[in-house]
Amino acid sequence: MKKRTPISEIMTKKVITLNTTDDLETAERLFKKYHIRHIPVVSGNHIKGMLSYTDLLRISFADAIDEDEDTVDTIVYNMFTIEQVMAKNLISVSSSATIKEVAEILSKREFHALPVEDNGELVGIVTTTDLINYLLEQY
């Protein structure tokens, strides 16, 4: 196992994002369409927050809807904006951070994804699943 492997080797580079002006119904559709659990919320290329599927579950009955279902009950979603539900004050890492450094951050915190930023711009996202898949490839 290489000790200094940068996170850029395993991060997702084609990141699905939301804008602060998008609605929560759009967010749920993206979560289900792409089978993802975290979506950075951006303004241009600058990250403003992170929305997780768990954030949606906290305010709705989204888990009662079939994963393949296209219809979404929007009554609860119309009561909140993405900015009200998303996590703010994020910890981010640069693409040159090592996999070990990222693993240490994720192991000590209660979240499962980190935005990857270079020069203040979003360039990727890394999740605990990315780390597990990397470790599995080593064996």
From TrEMBL:
Residues 11-67, 86-139 form the CBS domain. This is CBS domain-containing protein. The keyword RNA-binding does not apply. It comes from Hanstruepera neustonica. InterPro entries: CBS_dom, CBS_dom_sf, Diverse_CBS-Domain. SMART domains: CBS. Keywords: CBS domain.
